[in-house]
Amino acid sequence: MNRKNLIVGQSGGPTAVINSSLYGVVSEAMRQESIGRVYGMLNGIEGFLAGRFLDFKEAFGADELEKLKTTPGAYLGSCRYKLPEDLNDPVYPLLFRKFEELEIGYFFYIGGNDSMDTVSKLSRYAAKTGSNIRVIGEPKTIDNDLVLTDHTPGFGSAARYVASTVREITVDANVYETKSVTIIEIMGRHAGWLTAAGALARKHANDNPLLIYLPETAFDQEAFLAKIEAAFEKNPNVVVCVSEGIHDKDGTFICEYDNSVGTDSFGHKMLAGCGKYLENLVRNRLNVKARSVELNVSQRCSASMMSATDQKEAVLAGAFGVKAALKGETGKMVSYVRTSNLPYRMTLGLEDVNEICNKEKTVPLEWISQDGSDVTEDFFAYALPLIQGAVEIPLGSDGLPDFISRK
Amino acid sequence: MNRKNLIVGQSGGPTAVINSSLYGVVSEAMRQESIGRVYGMLNGIEGFLAGRFLDFKEAFGADELEKLKTTPGAYLGSCRYKLPEDLNDPVYPLLFRKFEELEIGYFFYIGGNDSMDTVSKLSRYAAKTGSNIRVIGEPKTIDNDLVLTDHTPGFGSAARYVASTVREITVDANVYETKSVTIIEIMGRHAGWLTAAGALARKHANDNPLLIYLPETAFDQEAFLAKIEAAFEKNPNVVVCVSEGIHDKDGTFICEYDNSVGTDSFGHKMLAGCGKYLENLVRNRLNVKARSVELNVSQRCSASMMSATDQKEAVLAGAFGVKAALKGETGKMVSYVRTSNLPYRMTLGLEDVNEICNKEKTVPLEWISQDGSDVTEDFFAYALPLIQGAVEIPLGSDGLPDFISRK
């Protein structure tokens, strides 16, 4: 009998829908006659090397699998392990021997840039050694920075979280009449996609957030202060979204400006984020009430604002990858191809993973306003479809979200 | 004709359900034959003194009023204005002259400690001058620190937000195998109710958050470090909840320990929170991965985790206050009286506002574990009923929560 087994792993930072991708792969693999067992690596390639994996049929009841779709985080656990550049490294034959023992025919890895690097290396090693294991990458990242795909699973939910939270913080900021500035620091070191999503919070022209700064352009703090002064003409409560990675024209990160904010009582350096720095800058220079909010890990782990579109697409991409592997594809990443904005339509495709790994897609400069303090209508047309639809998260007997976790 | 008008205002920091209280007052007042117009002060007593108010019948369509129940923040705007202690101050006759002009018979103020101080002063001034305006306080605070009431509107939703967010952050922390400590900083300067709600995130014994520190007891950083070391035996990923107001036995706030984290490039003092301080302490002393998350304003302004119980009770309390005022009550705050835990049952009551204002209810010491690093089962029995039930927030055409706001 020619049935081969499938193994899937998760890698890098988690998202709200990385388990939806997993659900897509696993449920499709279980449906396929020609696939035998479906295994999951625990803590990615690193845990697998240490012999840690599970069998989905043993680990899950039939209805339990559905719960993956509403559970954030990485069900299988994650890792940040980089395979050696040299394909002659002994780790490769070691890995492939383990694959052989488990009769693996299909290797799936769900992750971002670094994970696609793993997919690239394993598929190249397989080609080099004549192994017929098919290696497929499933995209994942809230940063939306993978090339050759319209967007990435995880971005829509994170963008929905950012947009609705910025709207709520704006409602909160509006209760007082006194002039105030609220700086919201959003994830994104090199790509501003998620910060740009803050713009979706606006309900009308001149609504907050009045200013948006991405790492794609250089940040000038004097121009920023002047912009805030001007924004007070529109609203006494000014809300500003900034990417954690904003930097000046010399490439110095704004969060590094406060290098004196550097010593705790042990003499160790402490770093506040750029939000905290700008809060102090505004308070000291403009003499107005200022506060900063760092949205932090909830951007990637909150299930409360999961986008139904994002969830659905992640499941479809997972299943699509399995069908592609069965057709003989390998060394590919599943990609999203947008065919229409209004109405929003997209199809799935495959791209050479070697063209994707270790590259970064940033927000096009044409989508950023001339003065670098806002995004254009193009961004709205791009991002709005991706945050559509609420997902009902099942509640447990304690009344809180009932996430599934490994025993 | 003897019909009098009612005026209502909101004061202090907003919550997820302060507009539900407003809905309760306004909808009940509109139902009552003996009440004429229903006015809302804009930005509380401060805005009213400046002549700013609205008429609910003019401002709202009939179905629009319902939207108050799913809109966080203070619809009428808020203020932090304290009336003078001296009832002979000219502001009092000025205010009451304005009340007279508008033929006000009923004054409602929705807020916390400071707002109850306003209710106390206005009711005492009315008594002193023989005015028959009836003055009623509607409780509101996420801090849950008002005395003479089982709990306060706003707490249940904030507690639900904290519990589910701590659960999500725990899911996020669990994806890696490497030892890590996540410090979650939660609102509460003197009362630890909200931080204690972090405990509700646990799904089983020895689940995260493994440690919880409230401002009701003294914090010792050496004991804290030892507790973390011990917690690693249970889980490599340790999640800790701390109140922003934790302090040592001498009363020094932990966030003041890093007084050297104090100068930005302008030489101005910068303060990080206690979470940031403890993150650095853990990293430097225990040599493990550490991060901190400040839940910040989303605790009070997020509608995504609104508690249906909290929302329903806030509406009931609003309506109850109107009926009490019509019966002749004045100088009272509406209170929650719990009659049973299992099943949870509560009724509404009235308490003398003079016994409430400027006092603070903290977590009973019997509900805190001996070593000050956890809460007892009593807290669970108390808090669990208050976070029950999800509320569906209507979505707008942009797919995001559709909050109502003043034109």
TrEMBL record, chains A, B:
Compartments, as annotated in UniProt: Cytoplasm
Cofactor entry: Mg(2+)
Phosphofructokinase domain residues: 6-323
Binding site for diphosphate: 13
Catalytic residues identified in the record: 143
Site entry (Important for catalytic activity), positions: 140
Source species: Blautia hansenii (Ruminococcus hansenii)
Keyword Magnesium recorded: yes
NCBIfam families: PRK14072.1
This enzyme's EC code(s): 2.7.1.90
Function: Catalyzes the phosphorylation of D-fructose 6-phosphate, the first committing step of glycolysis. Uses inorganic phosphate (PPi) as phosphoryl donor instead of ATP like common ATP-dependent phosphofructokinases (ATP-PFKs), which renders the reaction reversible, and can thus function both in glycolysis and gluconeogenesis. Consistently, PPi-PFK can replace the enzymes of both the forward (ATP-PFK) and reverse (fructose-bisphosphatase (FBPase)) reactions.
Protein name per the record: Pyrophosphate--fructose 6-phosphate 1-phosphotransferase
Positions with a binding annotation for substrate: 141-143, 187-189, 244
Subunit: Homodimer.
Similarity comment text for this entry: Belongs to the phosphofructokinase type A (PFKA) family. PPi-dependent PFK group II subfamily. Clade 'B2' sub-subfamily.
Superkingdom field: Bacteria
Gene label: pfp
